[in-house]
Amino acid sequence: MLTLRQVRLAWILVLPTLLVVALVAGYPLAQVFYWSFFKADIAFVEPPEFVGLENYLFLFQDPDFRQALWNTLTFTVVSVSLETLLGLAIALIIHSNFRGRGLVRTAILIPWAIPTVVSAKMWQWMLHDVYGVINVLGVKLGLFAHKIAFLARPELLLPSIIAVDVWKTTPFMALLLLAGLQLIPEELYEAASIDGASRWQQFWSITLPLLTPALVVALIFRTLDALRVFDVIFVMSGVNPATRTLAVYNRQTLIDFQDLGYGSAISVAILVLIFVFVVFYMRTLGREALR
Amino acid sequence: MRRFWRFLNRFFFYLLVVFVVVYSVFPFYWAVISSFKPSNALFSPDPSFLPVPFTLEHYENVFLRANFGRNLLNSLLVAGGATLLSLVLGVLAAYALGRLPFPPKNAVLYIVLAMTMFPQIAVLGGLFMLLRQTGLFNTHLGLILTYLLFTLPFTVWVLVGYFKGLPRELEEAAYVDGATPLQTLLKVMLPLTGPGLVTTGLLAFIAAWNEYLFALTFTVGDSVKTVPPAIASFGGATPFEIPWGSIMAASVVVTVPLVVLVLVFQQRIVAGLTAGAVKG
């Protein structure tokens, strides 16, 4: 009796959330799939025309799409690798016992809290070709011979943007890894010390294997985030083809070019790319959480 | 000799610590002091590392720009609205999913989990058309609704965890005393999830406050535009006219509330981040 009422209540409680999900995700998603088979502009100035798979076939011929895909993958691989290494180092530092570790943890939360747009602007100013503090200090300390136009030279643009992203997102990585480190029982290290294992051996045979689950979760989260990167790229270099990622190209096609059909096909391509990772993520994370 | 090595070890360790702190904090510090420097000191070949000479002119400029106050208000309305709505809807759904017998529980949880990783860009075109069709384009409500795409699933996901962690006995005691399930939720369980609500609320607020793509695409003019797209488009027609002082002042204005929140609620934010592993 109570159970039946509870089930009914459960439905009533979940329903608003399901409706919202249907409205802001389900319906727009269906639209994107539908229009990807049409030649149509987003304001419907011209009547839409069914073109079958034409938009998808064009993806394979479009050099701009290929470049955007390449930029996205480069950005993802490089930034996530750097963030992982740096995040691991910072997590290990905070995890070791020393005075002022609370301060360090607070300090690394600052980049995390800063809006991406703001961090992009801050770094644009620091990387300014004439008055930027990085150029001023770099020359003064003799790190580089003369000032560098970081954001004007195409080959330095993506590395600069990656540096900004690494600064902003490493804290997240460090915090996830720190939580993982704190789960490793202290006794293991004590036992290993008694057996005469060096710090280095302890790291490779205790820390790293036991940290793997946290590492995998953190990696997947950051990878998914990096694959859809938009803010930092768009603020720092707009739609510049040298750095334009899939998300930037997608928005440009949909909104600037008003090309609903092809833009939708790009959206589907991004979804497929991310779906592969989401499945992976569900299989590693989801199973545990759903238990 | 051994003491010397230990000292050296310690020394390098603290050097590393100092490096991490400076690396994390310096860019924001630089933005703050830049925002207080008069333009001639800002564009100097030998900038000072302290805000001397000191001026508030950039802050005056920012707030005298008729629209920046408006942008701030919009940010507050949209982020606040999205947070409040996700908390209300999220608590209800999370209680059902975490505590009540609900046959399609796993299916719903899978949808919610998938949604937390959902790429905003993939529904940009669909949402754009939806907002146009419903007359919600360039309205606060429209922006709030689209923000639920990323705030609501995350809220539900984290709160389910909180509800699951509460002891069974409390609920049973309430039922024995004749409380209905809804009363049990509101009077017994909800007060206990206070910390969870604060954490998820904060994280949802920060995510909405910082959002850029939707705010850029679903608003025109300044009547609804939030701060991130406003800051991104600050400035003149050529690179030489970029008002760096004002941009830094505006950046500090939007960031300071976040930094204060982070300092005050540090523990909760870290707990929530690692529990829900929200996007950075």
UniProtKB/TrEMBL annotation, chain A:
Its main location: membrane. It is found in: Cell membrane. It holds the Pfam family BPD_transp_1. It is a multi-pass membrane protein. The chain crosses the membrane at residues 9-30, 68-94, 130-150, 162-183, 203-222, 261-282. Keywords: Cell membrane, Membrane, Transmembrane, Transmembrane helix, Transport. The keyword Oxidoreductase does not apply. Residues 69-283 form the ABC transmembrane type-1 domain. Coiled coil: none annotated. InterPro entries: MetI-like, MetI-like_sf. It comes from the Bacteria. Belongs to the binding-protein-dependent transport system permease family. This is Carbohydrate ABC transporter permease. It comes from Thermus composti. The lineage of its organism: Bacteria, Thermotogati, Deinococcota, Deinococci, Thermales.
UniProtKB/TrEMBL annotation, chain B:
SUPFAM superfamilies: MetI-like. It is found in: Cell membrane. PROSITE patterns: ABC_TM1. Pfam families: BPD_transp_1. InterPro entries: BP-dep_ABC_trans_perm, MetI-like, MetI-like_sf. Coiled coil: none annotated. It is a multi-pass membrane protein. The chain crosses the membrane at residues 12-33, 72-95, 107-131, 143-163, 184-209, 242-265. Gene3D superfamilies: MetI-like. Residues 72-265 form the ABC transmembrane type-1 domain. Its main location: membrane. Keywords: Cell membrane, Membrane, Transmembrane, Transmembrane helix, Transport. Belongs to the binding-protein-dependent transport system permease family. PANTHER family: INNER MEMBRANE ABC TRANSPORTER PERMEASE PROTEIN YCJP, MALTOSE TRANSPORT SYSTEM PERMEASE-RELATED. This is Carbohydrate ABC transporter permease. The lineage of its organism: Bacteria, Thermotogati, Deinococcota, Deinococci, Thermales.
